[in-house]
Amino acid sequence: MTSIEAAPIGRRDGRSRPAVSAVRRGRSFRLLLPALVLLVVFFALPVIALLLRSVLEPSPGLQNYAALLGSTTYLRIFLNTFEVSALVTLVSLLIGFPVAWTLAILPRAAAAPVFAILLLSMWTNLLTRTYAWMVLLQRTGLINKTLMGLGLIHEPLPLVNNLVGVTIGMTYIMLPFVVLPLYGVIRKIDPAILQAAALCGATRFQALVRVLLPLVAPGMAAGALMVFVMSLGYFVTPALLGGTANMMLAELIAQFVQSLVNWGMGGAAAFVLLVVTLGLYALQLRLFGATGLGGR
Amino acid sequence: MLLQFDRLGWWRWVLVGITAAATIFLLMPIVFIAALSFGSSQWLIFPPPAWTLRWYRELLADPSWLESAWTSLQIACLVTVLSVALGFLTAFGLVRGRFPGRETLKAFFLTPMILPVVILAVALYAFFLRVGLAGTTPGFVIAHLVVALPFSIIAITGALEGFDKSIEDAAVLCGARPIEAVARVTVPAIAHGLFSAAVFSFLASWDEVVLAIFMASPTLQTFPVKIWATLRQDLTPVIAAASTLLMAFTIALMVLAAFARKGRRT
């Protein structure tokens, strides 16, 4: 600290800068070191090591990638991962947009409970929520029993261990991630623009399609991309609500490592997921700037 | 007109209807699980034929549930302390520092948030197997810290950016050593940021599932791993009881955090 105490208050360059600036300028990089070391040793290096194993095990070469991309089984898993993610993104947007819109125009007091529930569901443990859907959607679950009680169906619908189950469970998790950013976007729109549209003779529908939607579109695209990227890497919910027929990429990685102890293939599958995720994330940054947070 | 509730005409009822349905959709599983945890039916029938505390008694009678809860609590507390400390140093360095590559470093510190957790889990698992940290408390703490730290950095960076640093300068001009100025002026001023960093870090560790599934050993597992392992066997109401306790705990933390935020404003 001696250098700081000795630092003059008025600088020779004429700009008066108090002494703490010395800490800020010269030493602030050192403050990052503990976290930097932690992340390099326990994040960057292990991930790089895993990716290296994909080209080194069992022998150097690209055979793991060839096996991964050459097999119809694995290609089906890739395809399914994209399908599920796209479906979840679509459904989340279809529900999320009207909800965000309503929240943006409702009086604060009426919107507050909905926000509380959104945040509550966001912070409730992932397993807890997934367990709830496993119980609700099972053959003898509340949904099937209600539908049968209403006479709408005669046989229980297969709602779990398939695409329907995964889509419901994941949409449930992703909804807050769509609603909250969209709410922010809609709040920022100047209502005068829509009044102008009305004055110019636009009907409500025209104003929606030609004025409101184009204004919200960038926010929707950003939210959609974020939900899509988050869905691609999801593990817990697809593992519990999906069936063996529609496995997702994250489960495949876990299976390679945990049950097959095939680190080469696990690393290769992880690399594919990593490239797609980072690529889409870079695209999002490029197009919309930093908006969202990650997920599990 | 589309942004004014009163002038939406019949459209508003469509919007309100969808929002109400979505709210029920979000709330239903939470309420449902809480109700079932007090229900007497082993088959999770709703509404339950009778009310009972049986599942909570079973939960508390099984030492493995309590042990895993204790493990989770210990790990989450350690992660919280480390995450806030490292997050503070990092945020301070990032906000005040003017060095080359600052933006890149900032992005690097936040990558654990965007990378699919399963990749980190598998990579760390391989690394921990090699260095003997797999299935140990330090292993859990390190793994959870990696994912909790970005939350901490974001919360503290936000608070630091909102803090007028000329107050700190004034303290130094009044004769405080820089470190004293930071400890006695800056830290109290950004206490709300430190607090939300602590809450987010705690929840990030407490609720972490994917990393924990890979880190867990037969003798050491966290509460969510215990739920995961039980879930894979059957859908017993004991899980509903465990889930309800977990939710109650999370709600209590959220309410606490909300109060802390309110206290700051007034």
UniProtKB/TrEMBL annotation, chain A:
Similarity comment: Belongs to the binding-protein-dependent transport system permease family. CysTW subfamily.
Occurrences of domain ABC transmembrane type-1 (ranges): 78-284
Protein name, UniProt field: ABC transporter permease
Keyword Acetylation attributed: no
Gene Ontology biological process: transmembrane transport
InterPro entries referenced in this protein's UniProt entry, alphabetically: MetI-like, MetI-like_sf
PANTHER family per record: ABC TRANSPORTER PERMEASE PROTEIN (PTHR42929:SF5), INNER MEMBRANE ABC TRANSPORTER PERMEASE PROTEIN YDCU-RELATED-RELATED (PTHR42929)
Pfam families attached to this UniProt entry: BPD_transp_1
Membrane-spanning intervals of the chain: 31-56, 86-106, 112-138, 159-186, 261-283
UniProtKB/TrEMBL annotation, chain B:
A Pfam entry, by short name: BPD_transp_1
InterPro entries: MetI-like, MetI-like_sf
Its membrane topology: Multi-pass membrane protein
Cellular localisation: Cell inner membrane; Cell membrane
Family annotation (Gene3D superfamilies): MetI-like
Record-level GO cellular component terms: plasma membrane
Domain named ABC transmembrane type-1: residues: 69-257
Keywords annotated in UniProt: Cell inner membrane, Cell membrane, Membrane, Transmembrane, Transmembrane helix, Transport
Transmembrane segments: 12-38, 73-95, 107-128, 140-160, 181-206, 238-260
Family classification: Belongs to the binding-protein-dependent transport system permease family.
Protein name: ABC transporter permease
UniProt organism field: Segnochrobactrum spirostomi
